[in-house]
Every structure is written in C-alpha cells, then in structure tokens.
Amino acid sequence: MAKKPTYKELEQQVMRTLIVDDELVSRKKLRNIMDTFGECIVVENGADALRVATSQNPPDLILLDIIMPGMDGYEVCKRLKANTKPSNIPIIFISSKSEEGDEAQGLGLGAVDYITKPFSPSIVKARVRTHLELKKHRNRLEELVNERTVELKKATKEMQTEIAERKRTEEALRESEEQYRTLFENASEAIYVAQDGMMKFHNPKIEALYGYSKEELNSQPFTNFIHEKDREMVLDRHKRRLKGKRPPSNYPFRVINKSGDTRWVELNVTEISWNSRPATLCFMTDIDERIRAEEALRESEEKFRVIFEQAAVGVAQIESETGAISQC
To answer: Is the pLDDT of residue 12 over 80?
Structure first.
C-alpha cells in the first residue's frame, strides 16, 4: 500500500489542473493561465475528462466547459460527483451560458464556482488560486482526521491519552484556522461577510477599496457604500439570496469610497451560515480601470462612426493588392 504524503509534502506538491473545453482558442487562453500553477492537462471532450479524473494520478482542480459535443459539462460533473474517487475534486464551470438557471444548475451539481465567458484572466487566476489553496487546507484537515481517528482507536484504554490527543487535535485545528485567516487577509480580492444588512467580517482589502476604517465599515449598513443607482438592485439580490432564491451570483455595480469617488467592482457571492444564521460570503474585485477603458473605446468608436458618416467627401477603403474598393 502506497504511503500517504505528509502535510509538508502536500504543501510542496505541484498542483495538477485539468482543462476541458472543445474550443481551441479558449483552451489556449486557459492553458496560459493555468501553467502558472504547475502541471496542466488539456482535453477537448467529456470522455477524456472522465478518463483523466478517474486515473491513478487525478487532477487537483477541473476547469470544465458546459457546451461540448457528445457529453456536456453538466453530465461530466454529475458522473464525477457520483464516483467516490474523484468526487472531491473541485470543479469550476467556465461557459458562455450566462443565464441564472445555468449557474444554479452547475452549482447544484456540486461545482464550487461558475465563471462566464468571455472571462478575465485575472479573475480566473484569482478564483483558481483560492480554490487550490482551499483544497490544500482541506487535504490537511482530512489528513488530521484520518490520523486522529487511528490514534484514538488505539488510545481508548487510557483516558489521559485521549485527553492528550484532543489537545493536539485542537492545536492542529487552531493552526489550520490561522492558515485560513492568513489566506483571507492576504487575498487579492476584497472579501466580506454580509448579514442583517451589515458587514460582519471583512479583510483589509475592503478597507483599502473604500478608504474607511474597520469601525466605520462595521457601524453602518453596507448599502451606504454602494452607488445610489445600484443600491436597490444589490440589496434586493442580497435579500433574495438569504431567502433561498437564486439571483445572479456574479455581477458588476458601483461603489462610493470615502473621498466620494465612484468605482466599478465585480461581485461574486455565495450563501453561508454565520453564527448559525444565513449570511452571504462576498468576493469583490475592482474592475474600474477595465470598465473605463471599455467606455473610452466605445466613445472613440462612436466618434469615428459619426465622422465617417458625416464626412463631406467620399471615404473609401481600397484593397492594397487588388485595388478594389471594399468599403465607402
């Protein structure tokens, strides 16, 4: 029987990711992103995905397209979750299917995240990094549980041994919680927990984004920091999610920082239990530069179109090789 890797070995282990997408351009873009995390395997259909995921050396994470010939991504996910061996592999759907029901179906099948195409490389990288780190910690906890279970079975004869084992387990769990906290506080995304209309917990990135202190953020409703034109929409989706409904979990809106400046952000949100009550875990990414660049491009294109249409003289585009007029 092969020896299980230690936690130190797991930490140093090269992570393996599997990309499943029938589109060549999309595969190449994802490959360029995922190569930074270690070994990357690329396949273009569901059958090959199942073969790799159920092999002796399965991936640590799967990026899965939905629309593919033959077996679609939903079916691949369903079969993997029904199989004991690969059922714990985190699956992130990456698809052009952007309807609320599509995302709900994917998450309902057991996926840990859902990213719509066209995707932002930085968003994909941040989400993948988060889920790979969470998997490392989950492996650590599973290793602890397995070790402690064996040890406690051997220690049932003496109460003192049982107490000592409990103390070691508690210390290991505290260590693991500290690692989670370190990951949380140093995440590239702004992260907060929302409950009862307030921010119950947040990382330092939130304070940097808004320009407010921890006390200022925690003492007033989180909607106070949202642009008035987006406030009702964000609050409505927050309330619907807490009631068990399925509003969009990924969408952009505007926030107002302490200086009064407006910035665009993108929110990814999921339901959690906080102090035994419903709450939402929110990941917020600053996309202001991207939005403003897109707006500038649209304005430039519109100016060019107006000038083109209102030109007093004829404007023509002539092919350099044939001399033919292709547009005028």
So the answer is: no
